């Protein structure tokens, strides 16, 4: 009975903190750009060294201490630049932020790979820029995640937050995202000041666009980074069935998400033929959005339809779109880590049907999985209502508590 009394109180605290963040954002609280925090494209820290290809993936190539968000907060934080590999198997330089809470760990300090949804075409939307104190409308996704991040630190975990889209800001490139996450973990584990040891359990978390990166990392872990073993993985608001997601919002207030999806797939997979199916307005939108953040698409393109940007109707049913989606969609491999997945039954951005189908695929492949079809309404409601359950699942995995194998769906 005591635990049942504590959980609602913590959930109320989380809702209040997130609501305050939302109000600040809605009322225009975004301080002016700071001259001492240049955009990543103008920051030498993000520049790749000439010998990048000679370094193994996950190698730390430079570090700097930061004040988290540019504020005096009681945590230790650093940024690491590290070598990773993109989806074309080319060496790439990524940046990650490592945050460690002040309280001492009772045992080996757990390490959580916390993914923040970038959903973007530009590096000014990258978490590392916001976490260093960058001020720009593109930091909105990171600010929204701050109450959730605070809860992970309250639990005493070290957290690694990687710019998993990479310097090319490749939204919906699953292989690229997976490599960025896994090599970020490698970098954090080798960084002594983080206090993470070989005995430290490792977990991963992400919601919405960050769930995409988190689950791709879990899917590719065994072949790309076998030494990175996840004790547990939590993901919510999972963007499965990309075509269904775009179709559900097309023409509505969130239709900018459909256009963001189309343009991202066209840019990530140029050989799919999607770019050739854009009309003049579609090509103009692609050019105008070259450095845009996903949060800017929603107000700009509310109420539009994809047919307004393409030369032929029903592009979501086209061979080109299906070919691109086939390369991006989750589910081709089954993660071997214990999974806790959740999704609102009434998600207004990502229909629950795709989530259910992905859960079925994972279960058919032998996953150890708990799936929650959440009663909390809407995409954002599911994020708030189920977060603490996902964190408790990770706490249990970090503590080594036994878990029954197989799938448990509710």
Describe this structure as you would to a colleague:
The chain contains 12 helices and 10 strands. It has 410 residues and is α/β, with parallel strands linked by helices. The model is unreliable at 1-7 and 11-33 (pLDDT under 50). It has 2 domains: 2-240 and 339-409, Alpha/Beta hydrolase fold, catalytic domain (Rossmann fold), CATH 3.40.50; 242-327, 434 Repressor (Amino-terminal Domain) (Orthogonal Bundle). It starts with a helix and ends with a strand. Helix 12 links the parallel strand 9 (369-374) and strand 10. The longest helix is centred in the first third of the chain and has 25 residues, at 2-26. Strands 1-2-3-5-4-6-7-8-9-10 form a 10-stranded mixed beta sheet, sandwiched between helices. The chain has helices spanning 2-26, 127-131, 140-154, 174-189, 209-224, 242-249, 255-268, 280-288, 294-300, 319-328, 352-364, 379-398, and strands at residues 60-66, 76-85, 91-100, 111-115, 158-162, 202-207, 230-236, 339-344, 369-374, 407-409.
Categorize the overall geometry.
globular
Biggest beta-sheet profile: 10 strands, mixed
Low-confidence stretches: 1-7, 11-33
How would you state the average pLDDT, rounded? 91
- The proportion of strand residues reads 15-25%
Strand order of the largest sheet: 1-2-3-5-4-6-7-8-9-10
Write out the CATH superfamily name of the largest domain: Alpha/Beta hydrolase fold, catalytic domain
**Global Rg:** 20 Å
Q: What fold name stands as the CATH topology of the largest domain? A: Rossmann fold
Please write the string of helix (H) and strand (E) elements: HEEEEHHEHEHEHHHHHEHEHE
First-residue to last-residue Cα separation: 22 Å
Q: Helical stretch count?
A: 12
